[in-house]
Design a protein that fits this description.
Blueprint lengths: L3 H10 L19 E3 L4 E2 L2 H9 L3 E6 L4 H17 L4 E4 L7 H11 L8 H5 L7 H11 L6 E3 L4 H9 L12 H14 L9 H21 L4 E6 H4 L5 H6 L7 E8 L11 E5 L9 H4 L1
Helix pairs in contact: 1-3, 2-3, 3-6, 7-9, 8-9
Length: 287
């Protein structure tokens, strides 16, 4: 497989090309892009065409998959080539970083990006800059706003200490809360004390609620990049939007590795990317 560095060079070199749907940085094998509503197999250009007319698009990623980050940059550029982009929102940015993002955008004004971009943005070490840097570098020089979509750490601590009542019939359904609780246990390698699960669930759902609020308030057409569970129609941000009666204005694309399965209940579209070597993040905890 081509290296991520080569893919990114190809993407950035194409910035001066005429407006068109660019060749995708990850080879689209037959059947890898599916419209889950109809079962139809799509080409990359057809996917872009279908997403172009939607006011709000959510793209769910696997955070540590380099192919997903390359595809997100490709998708942002391809959509922008066909119509003006209204805004880009990131789960990886907190509200207290927004003034820094805005300041960097104001000072660039066509000049080269500063060397200490992560420091200027107060980028959080939990998000691998080598994966997210190319997207941020591109988005910061665009005319549309780059917006924080997450909670501040102080907000997270407050929610954890005293979980608020979450309003909405869909988001409070037992099938939703039970599935999210199971995912929280799994993501903590089964080591999270059971008494902490409700608080962690509250944090997860308040993150989804914040992303939904920010997406609805953002200038359209708006694009949100977040983790796959946040993006899911049956568990995440779209449910919070649906509880506000605006679900028809949102499309969900999930990026997933081959070998996994994304159902129509979870997304409108799926793009299956080559599977990556398995990483056992729980191994250190088990030692």
């Amino acid at each position: 497989m081509r290296s991520l560095a080569l893919l990114l060079v190809m993407l950035l070199a194409a910035c001066s090309s005429s407006p068109q749907v660019l060749p995708p940085p990850v080879v689209a094998h037959p059947g890898s892009i599916i419209d889950l509503r109809s079962g139809q197999v799509l080409s990359p250009a057809e996917l872009v065409e279908r997403l172009s007319g939607v006011p709000r698009v959510i793209v769910g990623e696997q955070h540590d998959n380099a192919d997903h980050h390359a595809l997100q940059l490709w998708l942002l550029r391809s959509l922008s080539a066909g119509r003006p982009q209204g805004s880009l929102l990131l789960e990886m940015l907190n509200p207290d970083q927004q003034p820094r993002v805005d300041a960097v955008k104001r000072t660039l004004d066509g000049r080269r990006l500063p060397d200490d971009l992560p420091g200027l943005l107060a980028w959080q070490s939990g998000w691998d800059w080598s994966l997210y840097g190319p997207l941020l570098s591109y988005a910061l020089i665009q005319p549309y706003p780059l917006l924080a979509a997450n909670l501040d750490r102080q907000e997270v601590r407050g929610i954890y200490a005293r979980p608020p009542v979450l309003r909405g019939d869909r988001v409070s359904a037992s099938a939703v809360t039970e599935a999210l609780s199971a995912q929280i246990r799994e993501s903590h390698c089964g080591s999270l004390p059971e008494r902490q699960v409700p608080a962690m669930l509250a944090v997860q759902q308040q993150r989804d609620r914040r992303m939904a609020e920010r997406l609805l308030a953002a200038p359209p057409p708006a694009l949100l990049f977040a983790g796959a569970f946040h993006g899911r129609k049956d568990l995440g941000v779209p449910l919070h939007i649906a509880d506000q009666g605006q679900s028809q204005d949102v499309a969900v694309l999930i990026l997933a590795e081959q070998g996994s399965e994304v159902l129509a209940s979870a997304a409108d579209f799926v793009w299956y990317t080559p599977s990556q070597p398995y990483k056992d993040y729980c191994a250190q905890l088990r030692r």
